[in-house]
Every structure is written in structure tokens, then in C-alpha cells.
Design goal:
The protein is of the alpha+beta class. Helices cover 19% and strands 47% of the residues. Strands 1, 2, 3, 4, 6, 7, 8 and 9 form an eight-stranded mixed sheet that branches. Strand 12 and strand 13 form a beta hairpin. The protein is flat and about 55 Å long. The termini are far apart.
């Protein structure tokens, strides 16, 4: 009898300890990314408008032409839109944030100038239901691109500032996950994956042209495209393209792209030379 009682007491103690460990463990933020839809005319004055759905707490992070939504607590936060008239520079001038709508709280947590080119807006929604939040950031002028600081700069690819400008959204730490098995060529992929490959190549081609004003001609190379159909309707595409500059020089670049077949949207992209 005593043995059974001791065993029950031990089991209860272990369960309580495990529960405390789980409760005290730091939460891991869930992250989703999106490329901004470029609307309007670029110029001295820049603006990005975001719309997200949050229940709990989340951070909206904007860097260059990409948005990153990190859920800290509550339901998984979701993107509705991110629209900019031009990429956010590394050191924007006269940077401002304005919350437009949504109950709860929106606050500017970090400005790009002191946060490696990243604007961070913290959202708190303590209600038990999802809520839509809209906000916008504005700036006037600035220097540098969000993917590398202004000169002096040394790129991880061994070049100077020009090389770094061609490493837009490309993270070396992701290489292993992009080099696994399961990739097929474009021609052997299903219709959904083929549509993803086409959408990715069109998007990256436009992005290269937009982010490099010296480029006068961009051609994607379909024969280099390989496709991996992942979980949750996400299709990964990688391949190459070529470009020609106004000065006559040219070359090739590699790209990566993720396409959501359920929404028909590009959710992530990057390229480097």
C-alpha cells in the first residue's frame, strides 16, 4: 500500500515539475513573411501601409521591401497586406509611424536607423478575438538599402557595396534547407507547381528591375528552375536569371522564392549574384 502511495506521489511530483518547466520555457515566436506590393510613384517621400490580424501580441517588422510578422502570444497573426511606394532605406530621414485602426495598442518599438534598417511595430490585443490592425510608416529621403548599411561595407560574399546590393533577402543560414532532396525540374512538376515557378520568376524579375535602376534588361532562365512541393501548400522554387546594365555589363544571379498555392501569393523571395 505504501509503495503504491509513494509511486503515486512520485508520479504527481514529476508531472508538476514538467508542467512548471513547460510554463517557464521561453515562447518561440511564429513568423510569417511577405513581400510588399509596390504601388504609387517612388520619390523623396516614402510610405508603407500594413494590415494584419492579431489576437494576443505580435511584432510587425519592415525591412526594405519585405515584411515579417512575429507572433509572440495568442493566435497566429496573419498578413492581410503590405503596400509601399518604394523600399524602406537603411537610414530613413524624418521617420514616422502612425496607427490607423484597430483596438488595443500599436506602438513603435524600434526605428530603422538604430535597428539595422528594420522598423518594428508592437501590437497588443488583450481581447479573446482576432482584430484587424492597420498602420503606416513614412519617411523623407535617407541612405543605404535595408539589406546592407551604407558604405563603408564588406559583403559576406567577398565584395564591396555593389555585391551586397545584389544579396537582397538572401540568408546564408538558409542554404542547408534549400539544398535538400525532393526538387524536380519545371517540366516534370504538376500544374500548381508550374504556376508557382512562373509566378516566382515573374516576381523576382520585376524585383531585380525595380531594385537596380542601372539594369535595363532582365531575363529569367526557365531551364534552371527547380521546384519542391512542401507542406501546407507552399512551393519552393530556385533558379537563375541574367541581366544587362545600362553600361553594357551583365551577368547571372540566383534566386529563391516561396509561393502559397492556397492564396496564390509570393510569401518570400531572395536573390544574389
Amino acid at each position: 500500500m505504501n509503495r503504491s502511495r509513494n509511486l503515486l506521489l512520485f508520479s504527481s511530483t514529476v508531472a508538476i515539475v514538467l508542467m512548471l518547466v513547460v510554463l517557464q520555457a521561453p515562447a518561440i515566436a511564429q513568423v510569417s513573411t511577405v513581400d510588399a506590393l509596390m504601388l504609387g510613384k517612388a520619390g523623396e517621400e516614402g510610405k508603407c501601409t500594413f494590415e494584419v490580424v492579431v489576437q494576443g501580441t505580435a511584432d510587425v517588422q519592415i525591412r526594405g521591401s519585405q515584411g515579417r510578422l512575429a507572433t509572440d502570444s495568442g493566435n497566429l497573426a496573419q498578413w492581410r497586406r503590405l503596400e509601399c511606394n518604394q523600399p524602406l532605406p537603411y537610414n530613413p530621414g524624418d521617420f514616422k509611424f502612425r496607427g490607423i485602426d484597430g483596438h488595443g495598442q500599436q506602438s513603435l518599438a524600434a526605428v530603422p536607423n538604430s535597428n539595422n534598417g528594420i522598423a518594428v511595430i508592437h501590437i497588443v490585443n488583450n481581447s479573446n478575438k482576432n482584430e484587424g490592425y492597420t498602420g503606416e510608416i513614412e519617411w523623407k529621403g535617407g541612405s543605404g538599402t535595408a539589406w546592407n548599411p551604407p558604405p563603408p561595407n564588406t559583403s559576406r560574399y567577398g565584395g564591396g557595396n555593389e555585391t551586397a546590393r545584389w544579396n537582397s533577402g538572401w540568408n546564408d543560414a538558409d542554404d542547408a534547407s534549400w539544398n535538400g532532396d525532393g526538387y524536380s525540374n519545371w517540366n516534370s512538376a504538376g500544374s500548381g507547381a508550374a504556376a508557382a515557378a512562373q509566378a516566382c520568376q515573374d516576381y523576382v524579375g520585376r524585383r531585380v528591375s525595380r531594385e537596380h535602376t542601372e539594369v535595363v534588361n532582365v531575363q529569367m532562365l526557365p531551364d534552371t528552375a527547380t521546384i519542391h512541393q512542401g507542406d501546407g501548400g507552399i512551393v519552393r522554387v530556385k533558379g537563375q536569371g541574367q541581366y544587362q546594365s545600362s553600361g553594357g555589363a551583365g551577368g547571372r544571379f540566383e534566386f529563391r522564392c516561396e509561393y502559397d498555392t492556397q492564396t496564390g501569393q509570393i510569401v518570400n523571395s531572395g536573390y544574389h549574384r
